[in-house]
Design a protein that fits this description.
With about 200 residues, the protein is an alpha+beta fold. About 55% of the residues lie in helices and about 20% in strands. The chain is built from 7 helices and 8 strands.
Length: about 200
Amino acid sequence: MNFTRSQKTSPKVPPAAYDELCDFLHQSGSPLTPAEAIAGAIKLWIAKSREDAAPVRGYQWKQLFLPDGTRLRVRSGDTWQGADVIGDDLIFRGEAVSPNQMVQQTCGDARNAWLELWIRFPGEKNWTKAAQLRARQNELAAKAPLTPAEAMAAAAKAMSAALSTALTLVEHANHQSQNTLERRLPRYRRAHDELDDIH
């Protein structure tokens, strides 16, 4: 909803929420007044909303996303060579490269970047081999929920299979009842049954 400045008024806080806020401020010993707490909460909410709306920066390596601040390293002899994801680029020796180019420049052409590179995400302490991260990502993708279209297609397929099974069962039941009925007709009765009926 859009508001013009003339439409803006002081916020109306529901009484129950206001009482809960006052109780919390009192119990926590906060020096804030209710108005200050409300203003602070609004500012935090706006900042968080803007942060969530901002596009995430990082480098997309096949199915693996490396967010801004991710570190990569590769062993070259007795030393490690490192690179950083800065913005949307992987920077190695001052240049934007691909993971494969990083490994080629360090180890030669015949190396597989997934097997040679180690990755450490922002805020983490441990390094993980790229191949392990890719395998984990593939497992998550395999377990991902179906899209609405895929779910509808799967449901339609299941319904079709169930209908086919039901029709087969009905056909089988009809066939069985027809055989039972035909066995009871006179032309299929044994001669001594018919003799019994005469007596």
